[in-house]
Design goal:
Length: about 170
């Protein structure tokens, strides 16, 4: 697959509207990268699907390990995919909760925490440049959720940055 390197993503402050995606959330982060021009005509959900489908093998391996480790705790498994089922055997991905041209929102509610993943493309600026922003919002529900969030945070940050750096063509 042909890839375009979008450059190093910037961590930015989540906007108030992002916190509203999950009332009572205790964590949110946002990362922004330049949107390659060849992706500018796509809807945000399609960009998210391509971004996740183009993830490196180490990201898939980490998510598989995560799923094996949390299964005994009764937590839901997930694949780094957009949509409730995928062509690769129907394994679950991140369910799409809302999808428009400029914004797609995915999320899962589980016993330990709820999360929302918002992928947005900005309108073109005066210079024609556009940004892609990925925001994650998390509401923990109990001690297990807080411990889980603390454990995955370093991986989460690296994964989001990697996906934005490797926006596919």
């Amino acid at each position: 697959m042909n890839r375009t390197t979008a450059g190093k993503p910037d961590e930015i402050e989540p906007e108030a509207r992002h916190w509203q995606l999950l009332p009572g959330a205790g964590f949110a982060d946002s990362y922004r990268a330049a949107l390659p021009p060849h992706l500018a005509t796509l809807a945000a959900g399609e960009i998210a699907a391509r971004m996740m489908a183009g993830s490196p093998a180490w990201v898939t391996a980490l998510l598989d390990l995560r799923n094996r480790l949390v299964a005994p705790l009764g937590l839901k498994g997930a694949r780094l995919m957009v949509g409730a089922t995928q062509a690769d055997g129907g394994r679950p991905g991140f369910p799409v909760l809302a999808d428009g041209d400029g914004q797609a929102i995915m999320g899962i509610d589980d016993s330990h925490l709820d999360f929302r993943l918002c992928v947005e493309k900005s309108p073109a600026g005066a210079d024609g440049a556009q940004w892609l922003t990925v925001t994650t919002v998390v509401r923990t529900k109990r001690l297990l959720g807080r411990l889980y969030l603390a454990a995955i945070m370093p991986f989460h940050r690296r994964i989001v940055r990697t996906l934005l750096e490797r926006l596919p063509g």
